[in-house]
Specification:
The protein is an alpha/beta fold. It has eight helices and six strands; from the N terminus they run βαββαβαβαβαααα.
Length: about 200
């Protein structure tokens, strides 16, 4: 799932570590982050795809599944992004630092906030939980994220190491990539596990 992450330009240098942490947490939850850099270039998409979108006159927003905004500081672009989110019914997360007032942001949404838009305060230590709640709007379970962000130590024999080296020779894959793909294939073919996942969703 792709999300467009809007970061206000006000105090961007000061807030850069906060924005980077938000992006990192979004990626850890299984989302691909697209954002606009200070020079108006787009980060998170291939140059060829960006060129095609720009040539067609379309907005990058048409090619994302959701929107995440840091709305602590008011910005005219927030209204535009909210309008797009409402019209396209895209899962949207409006983040604001705990203790801040965001009357203008809430005012743009009117009295009733749609179910697919979450307006949530955050602190650094609570950010992961906040994003996990947002991810559920996509029907995703953050505990079953496919993003490889859990470090796991595996001791192997020389024989297995030799096989892995032989297997990835002349490919761009690493041993870890090969093993991840192999396990993913096992997961897909495991009927009992797939039935368990279906039952879990029902509960």
């Amino acid at each position: 799932m792709r999300v467009y992450f809007f970061r206000p330009e006000i105090n961007q240098e000061k807030n850069r570590p906060v924005y980077q942490n938000i992006a990192k947490k979004l990626e850890a939850a299984g989302l691909m982050v697209i954002t606009k850099e200070e020079d108006d270039s787009i980060f998170g998409m291939e140059e060829r795809e960006i060129a095609r979108i720009q040539a067609s006159g379309e907005s990058v927003l048409n090619y994302v599944d959701g929107i995440v905004m840091e709305t602590t500081a008011d910005n005219p672009e927030i209204g535009y992004l909210l309008a797009h989110a409402v019209l396209q019914k895209k899962p949207t997360l409006c983040l604001y630092q705990k203790g801040s007032l965001i009357k203008k942001t809430l005012g743009r949404l009117g009295q009733k906030i749609p179910d697919f838009i979450k307006v949530m305060p955050y602190q650094e230590e609570e950010l992961e939980k906040t994003i996990a709640e947002y991810v559920q709007l996509f029907g995703m379970d953050p505990e079953l994220s496919e993003v490889p962000n859990i470090k796991f130590t595996l001791r192997i024999s020389k024989k297995i190491s030799h096989f892995l080296h032989w297997k990835i020779n002349n490919t761009k894959k690493t041993k870890a990539d090969f093993l991840r793909e192999l396990i993913e294939e096992i997961i897909k073919k495991d009927e009992k596990y797939q039935k368990y996942l279906i039952q879990r969703k029902k509960n």
